Amino acid sequence: MVIAKRGLILGATALMLTGVTVIGAGIHLSSQASLNNNDTKELIDQVWQIIDKTYVDGTFNQVDWKATRTEFLDKSYTSDEQAYDAIREMLEKLGDPYTRFMDPEEFKNMQIDTSGELTGVGIQLTQDEDTKELVVISPIEDTPAFDAGIQAKDIITKINGQSTQGMDLNDAVSLIRGSIGSQVTLTIKRENREIEFPIVRAKIEIHPVKYSQKESSLGKIGYIRLNQFSANATGEMREAINDLESQDVSGYILDLRSNPGGLLYSSIEIARMWLSRGDIVSTVNRNGVTDRQKANNKSLTDKPLVIMVDGGSASASEILSGALQDNKRAKLVGTKTFGKGLVQSVRGVGQGAGLAVTIAKYFTPNGRDINHEGIKPDEKISLTDAQKEMLRKNRSKIGTIEDPQYAKALEVLTQEIATLQNNKAESAK
Question: Most buried among 83, 190, 366, 387, by the most CB within 10 A?
Fold first, then answer.
């Protein structure tokens, strides 16, 4: 399908960087104009029509969608707020936490560029489809949430003492976000214990790419850590690879741990930097129409590559790692990824409001359905809680031999480099 490249966002669901919510695994921000009148029933009908035409599940969660339209249009509404509540009630029938209505303030927040200077706590948050628990995808590095010790898969049970049981994702976001310097206390369930984390909201600067040249037994290697697929990730990744190539590295380790996603366009373009040919990702809508994104013979390097992933690697991270794994371009090291493979379209409705609709699923080149299943690494290695805490407190050790997952990735990369060098030596005889 044709997409507005800078408007398609992949994030594992709610991205709370600023007190701003970014929803979805794949989001296409439509250029459709908002309505120019206050007709609340027209707004409700507009939302119904969009769902009717584009929602990924043609059975609408086994709901009689036409009867739903009649039900909600037969009611009287005296304010925008009543219409908003009615729309949210209507969408709940779909049983899809990623299809949601946003009031004008929420929609304005949605449209904030992911590469900007943000404020908040730095948590990527989702709602479990079955239990409705609020689950942390991962904290962004160097943010208040990361510094406090929030981890991927943590479950938020209370916000400032208020139980989150049955709480809507939007309401949770509203409670967590706030002004710079203010404090929010999150009660986290981790395994069988609850922990309180008082977190001071702050300004957050996101620089998605960090890289360095490191030494190995077989020469220099390039280490690149990508924290988020934001608007400038493509340029920063290109610069990193070109710089490391100029230093004549023998191979690369790409660290996607705790990377929750971002712009789909960035994940595709970054995949093309590593992959010369082959499919990258395909999306399938409810009519079975498939769109495929492919490599374009413009890769920047063909040197051995190992990718590090974990449970916080989601959406765009899964597209990139899945594409390179399926094409046998890279080995994956770490733990299974998050498992988020839904594409959402986001457009303006009413007077400044917005609607996010799940319109498709995406698949790896080999046809793997990432949703819920995630991507399994070629070499599994987990971190203990003590190791996670050590790396959180000593971030300079991330990407060093004191980082067990990095040490394993280096071992795998060294084997790949040695195999390549041996093959070249045999061919030269």
Answer: 83
